[in-house]
Amino acid sequence: MKGSALRSEGGEPAMWVLGGLMVLVLAVAGALIGGFATSFGGHLKVAQTAVQMANTSGTTAATLNLTIVTGEMMGQGAVGPAYVPSDFTVPAHSTVKVTVTDFDGATPLTGSLVKYSKVSGTVGDVMQVQGINPLAPNTTVGSLHTMNHLAPALVGHTLTIAKLGINVPMAGQSRITFEIKTGGPGVYQWECMDPCGAGESGLGAPMGEGGFMAGTMTVAG
Predict the structure, then answer these.
(1) Cβ(198)–Cβ(205) below 8 Å
(2) What Rg value do the Cα atoms of the chain yield, rounded?
(3) Residue 64's closest CA among 80, 86, 48?
(4) Cβ(154)–Cβ(114) under 8 Å?
(5) Hey, what CATH topology would domain 46-220 get?
(6) Do strands 213-220 and 87-91 pair parallel, antiparallel, or not at all (unpaired)?
(7) pLDDT value of position 145
(8) 139: helix, strand or coil
(9) Could you state, in order of their start, the residue ranges of all structural domains in the chain?
(10) pLDDT per residue as tens digits for the range 144-171
(11) What percentage of the chain reaches a pLDDT higher than 70?
């Protein structure tokens, strides 16, 4: 019947049209929710993004986004802080751009731990630091700084992979960006060397606990 392609005999929209509209609405809603979760982290699951892409030199580049969340962000009664995700995978023989958004404040390095305020094992042994407003993390505070160390009193956490000689001090309530070069496949333990845990020493939980202030970096071939 002419003109009936989009309508049933009763003049109502065909079911497949309604289905298509529902799929579109769900897709838009999913995109908005995903953006919110990526922005605010915490108990909203923050997805790892290790996206491979070929560059002009024929090697592989990847990006990895990590978030440091507080106990409050993780929900009532949760012990924090924590890196999300704490176990992540990057490609072998690659340059990986890592961005860490730290919602937590500073816990100063003291004594023998002061050595972890220096950047090592990254490309150029440097990092870039940009302050954020934790209540509006897509906004920035102050200027972007390229640094090879951080004042011990400003360190909130570290990302330390001893076997690879990698150590990056994390400035509190900041976005930290750096690049690393990976070798062959393997699994490497990382941990935070800042005394951000329980007890007078700050070395109690969640320090050293997998899923919180320790985890693994898998280099996949």
Answers:
(1) yes
(2) 22
(3) 48
(4) no
(5) Immunoglobulin-like (2.60.40)
(6) parallel
(7) 97
(8) strand
(9) 1-40, 46-220
(10) 999 999 999 999 999 999 999 999 999 9
(11) 72
Helices (runs of H) and strands (runs of E) counted in the chain: 2, 13
pLDDT tens by residue, 105-146: 999 999 999 999 999 999 999 999 999 999 998 899 999 999
Question: Rounded to an integer, what distance in angstroms lies between the CA atom of residue 60 and that of residue 185?
Answer: 14
Mean pLDDT of all residues in the chain? 79
Could you tell me if 52 and 62 are in contact, meaning their C-beta atoms sit under 8 angstroms apart? yes
Which residue's entry shows tokens 């490309």? 123
Q: Determine the Cα–Cα distance for residues 11 and 115; give it in Å rounded to an integer.
A: 75
Cβ-count burial 155-166 (b if 16+ within 10 Å, e if not): bbbbbbbeebeb
pLDDT for residue 165: 98
pLDDT attached to residue 68: 96
How far apart, in whole angstroms, are the C-alpha atoms of residue 55 and residue 76?
44
Please give the full DSSP string across 5-54, using - where no structure is assigned. TTB-TTSSBPHHHHHHHHHHHHHHHHHHHHHHHHHH-TTSPPPP----EE
Residue tagged 């992540």 (tokens): 88
Identity of residue 68: I
Does residue 29 or residue 138 have the better pLDDT? Answer: 138
The DSSP string of 80-125 is: --EEESSEEEEESSEEEEEEEEE-S------GGGGGGGB-BSSGGG
Contact between residue 97 and residue 163 where contact means Cβ atoms under 8 Å apart: no
Distance in angstroms (rounded) separating the CA atoms of residues 67 and 85: 7
